[in-house]
C-alpha cells in the first residue's frame, strides 16, 4: 500500500535494525484518514471471505481494526492484556510472549463475543515474531470460530512471524512489508501487489 509506505518513509523512525517507531500515526498519535484507507484495503482483500467478526489486541490494533470493521460492517473485539474488573466470567485466554519487552502476558476475550458460527479476521499493527498473532489465533481456535486470515499493517519480513504463520497455512495480508531496517533506513520488500495499490 503505497500511501502507508510513504508515511513510514516520511514519519517513521528507525530506532535500531530491529525496531521501527511509528508513534506519530499508529502507535500513539493516530492518523484517522490513513486508518480509514487501511480499513478499506483490508476490507477489499477479505471482501469475499464472509467475515463476521474482527479480532485484535489492545491498544494499537484497535484503530485499524475498527476501520476494517466499519468497512465490512461487522463488530470488532479486542483482546485485553490486563484483567478487567468488569470482565471476570467466561474468558478465553492465551499466553503471549513479547520479545521486545521480554515478558509473557495473558490475553483474554469474553467468550460471549466469539462463537463457532463466527468467521474471524485478525488485525494487528505489527508482525514481528508472530507471538501476538499466535495468541489471538489460539483464542479464535478455542472459541470454535473459523479463522479467515490475519491482516497486518506493518510486517517486518526479516523476522520470523510471517513465514511461521504462512507455513501453518494461515493467510497473512500485510499492507507494508519491511525487508530491512539496516543503516537507519527502511527498505520495503518490493512486490507487484504493493506497486499496484
Ligand atoms: P510479535 O508478537 O509479532 O513478535 O510482535 C507483535 C507486537 O510487538 C506488535 O503488536 C507490536 O506491539 C510490537 N512490535 C514488534 N515489533 C515492533 C516494532 O518494530 N515497532 C513497534 N512500534 N512495535 C513493535
TrEMBL record:
Protein's UniProt name: Xanthine phosphoribosyltransferase
Q: What does this protein do?
A: Converts the preformed base xanthine, a product of nucleic acid breakdown, to xanthosine 5'-monophosphate (XMP), so it can be reused for RNA or DNA synthesis.
**Location(s), subcellular:** Cytoplasm
Is-annotated flag, keyword Ribonucleoprotein?
A: no
As its record notes, the protein acts as a catalyst of: XMP + diphosphate = xanthine + 5-phospho-alpha-D-ribose 1-diphosphate
User: Known InterPro entries for this protein?
Assistant: PRTase-like, PRTase_dom, Pur/Pyrimidine_PRTase, Xanthine_PRibTrfase
Q: What are its E.C. numbers?
A: 2.4.2.22
Binding annotation for 5-phospho-alpha-D-ribose 1-diphosphate: 128-132
Q: Ranges for the Phosphoribosyltransferase domain?
A: 33-157
Entry keyword Lipid metabolism: no
Provide GO CC annotations from the record. cytoplasm
Q: Name one Pfam family in it.
A: Pribosyltran
This protein's UniProt keywords: Cytoplasm, Glycosyltransferase, Purine salvage, Transferase
Main subcellular location of this protein, as a coarse class: cytoplasm
Q: How does it assemble?
A: Homodimer.
Amino acid at each position: 500500500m503505497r500511501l502507508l509506505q510513504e508515511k513510514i518513509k516520511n514519519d517513521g523512525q528507525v530506532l535500531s535494525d530491529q525496531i521501527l517507531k511509528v508513534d506519530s500515526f499508529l502507535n500513539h498519535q493516530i492518523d484517522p484518514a490513513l486508518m480509514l484507507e487501511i480499513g478499506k484495503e483490508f476490507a477489499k482483500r477479505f471482501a469475499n471471505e464472509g467475515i463476521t467478526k474482527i479480532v485484535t489486541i489492545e491498544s494499537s490494533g484497535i484503530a485499524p481494526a475498527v476501520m476494517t470493521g466499519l468497512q465490512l460492517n461487522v463488530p470488532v473485539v479486542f483482546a485485553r492484556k490486563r484483567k478487567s474488573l468488569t470482565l471476570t466470567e467466561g474468558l478465553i485466554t492465551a499466553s503471549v510472549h513479547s520479545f521486545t519487552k521480554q515478558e509473557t502476558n495473558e490475553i483474554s476475550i469474553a467468550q460471549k463475543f466469539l462463537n463457532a458460527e463466527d468467521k474471524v479476521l485478525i488485525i494487528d499493527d505489527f508482525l514481528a515474531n508472530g507471538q501476538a498473532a499466535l495468541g489471538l489465533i489460539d483464542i479464535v481456535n478455542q472459541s470454535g470460530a473459523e479463522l479467515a486470515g490475519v491482516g497486518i499493517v506493518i510486517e517486518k519480513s526479516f523476522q520470523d512471524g510471517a513465514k511461521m504463520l504462512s507455513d501453518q497455512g494461515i493467510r497473512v495480508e500485510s499492507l507494508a512489508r519491511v525487508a530491512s531496517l539496516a543503516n537507519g533506513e527502511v527498505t520495503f520488500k518490493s512486490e507487484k501487489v504493493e506497486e499496484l495499490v
